[in-house]
Amino acid sequence: MKNNRFIVLAGLLAIVAVVYYFATNVDQVDEEDAKMKVAFVYLTNPGDHGWTYAHEVGRLQVQEHFGDKVETSYVENVPEGPDATRVIRELAQNGNDMIFTTSFGYMEPTLKVAKEFPNIKFDHITGYMRAENMATGNIRFYEGRYVQGVVAGLTTKSNKIGYVAAFPIPEVIQGINSFAQGLKSVNKDATISVVWANTWYDPVKEGDAAKVLIAEGADVLAQHTDSPSMLQTAEKAGVHGFGQSSDMHEFAPSAQLFASVNNWGPYYIAQIEKAMDGSWTTGEGPDHWAGNTWKGLSDDFLVLSDFKNMPSSVAKAAQDARDGIADGSINIFSGPMMDNEGNQILASGEVLDDAGLWAMNYYVDGVIGKIPN
Amino acid sequence: MIDALILTILMTSVPLILAATGELVVERSGVLNLGLEGMMLMGAVSAFALTYTSGSLLVGLLAGVISGCLTAAIFGFFVLGLATNQVATGLALTIFGTGLSGLIGSDFVGKAVTGLPILFPESFSNIPFIGVFFALDIIAYLSVLIVFIVWIFLFKTKYGLILRASGISHTSSHSLGYKVLTVRWCAVLFGGMMAGLAGAYLPLMLTPHWSEGMTSGRGWIALALVVFASWMPSRIIYGAVLFGAITIMQLAGQARGWTIPPQFLSSLPYIATIFVLVLISSRGSAKYLAPSDLTRPFIASK
Hints:
The structure holds 2 protein chains of 2 kinds.
Chain A: H1 2-23, E1 36-41, H2 50-66, E2 70-75, H3 82-93, E3 98-101, H4 107-116, E4 121-125, E5 134-139, H5 141-155, E6 160-165, H6 170-186, E7 191-196, H7 203-215, E8 220-224, H8 229-237, E9 240-245, E10 256-262, H9 265-277, E11 293-295, E12 302-304, H10 312-327, E13 337-338, E14 344-346, H11 354-358, E15 367-368
Parallel strand pairs in A: 1-2, 1-3, 3-4, 4-5, 5-11, 6-7, 6-8, 7-15, 8-9, 9-10
Antiparallel strand pairs in A: 10-12, 13-14
Chain B: H1 2-28, H2 36-54, H3 57-81, H4 86-105, H5 138-156, H6 158-168, H7 170-175, H8 180-206, H9 218-228, H10 233-255, H11 262-266, H12 268-283
Helix pairs in contact in B: 1-5, 1-8, 1-9, 1-10, 2-3, 2-4, 2-8, 2-9, 3-4, 3-8, 5-6, 5-10, 9-10, 9-12
């Protein structure tokens, strides 16, 4: 028996060694002081689509923009929580000058490590906590949803829109409401049914949610979850939908109308440039969720993929809506605005400010149902 | 509308039926394999990779079955060959399968395949009331057939009796001259094949693409399902359809604006399993209880 135990132990050690090797497989580089070292922490494997892929595209843009002046690396598959603290600390110890942590759940781990390494600049994506050396960056994702709403309103025949959502947090609710505002601007009869998947990522469940919505009569689907399975389901059922975070038209060539694409490159490049010339700060202003950099269509932080599978008149309406948001002539949340229980949120002439956006806990008129607690 | 919902429920149940039936046979032989999730993921990634590269769904399905079987063989090597703790080894297998499938599949993220075809002509599915039962793919029908065959095997054949005996008392079975380890090896490998097939169903039918960790806990639901079925094959079908219906109805309920919290509905399969456990243990009927040598390693020399 002792021998057996030894074999098991040796086997387990071998497995641990292999796993550890792959888990911490950061590109090793020689110490070179002239280069600025920038590291990225990713939630998943970047793959070819979705949230992390969009960050990877941004990192590649950084590398191309700065060439030899910047050395970038990334760690993928970092779970949110204590593991993230360990990974971020390791990156800090390895001589990185700047670390971008690219998921909401890295907020507290980033803050913790930021306090331990006051000379390193940290940049957290989509959070609201800041420190002397920790900035935050975010995209006005909801702006793209308004354009989706416009296209959906002009495309739907059943006047039923399905929306697969992840978790009832302000960012997602902003998206639903913004979509509804766009929808109502072109089609007063259409309504939105929301299904909460209670996950950011479960391809089968997202597909099931899409099937259910189609069975309930929806003929245009939107999503705020990460996998392409909703679009695949739409493709199979012959209805339309919108891609998430990155262009997903390869999964659904005849179903995807367009995708709102997160374009992190300009933000990363701007932040690194500021760090180089010494103008990097963690900003001031009201300490609400928006963080200190929150930009959208007008700054190309959010770009829309090509409009496809729609008549040119609809594509033009979409382009007009996009341009209107970008130049400020369309204000998505402006009065009069009612919630879906008939209470007035904004009187005529009023507009919602950023604090109001982050405090959204209601559906606007046009969305069916109640937000789960 | 109702038809489409029922069809979705049936399709959601298929991987649960396959994985749970395999695990039921494994547990009936006295081995608990908690590595279902890992084996399913290995089956899923192999099936997708081979379908994508070869262009043949049959090759993909076979790859899924074989890789599930090979993953189970690793488990068998530890728990049967080295008599390690089954719970720990099974958990390790899940972690191992999740990681390795992600590594193998990283080149296949973002690719898509055409899913399995519907077996019967489309006109069949327009038959009122029962049409929906003709709108499924071959694996769905196969899964029900497998449950039936497993039932015949376990309860109507001599080999089934030997398998059950090694789960109830391996020492008695051994002293009668049966090869307990061989029986358990066969059961573990069969369980792996079923899990591999269940995994293959996800990227070939439910969502025709591969993504890391795409089983998202379905292996654990299948494990709960075996307990829910109180180790009786036929009940796996009811249980799987019930679990599938709960999953789909909580989504449909939301789309219709019902106010039941979806989190509560998501936890229903587990609550139902605990409820069944309480029920069978309070009735005290040995027939519906776990095989008594479940998780006990067998060492012939002792």
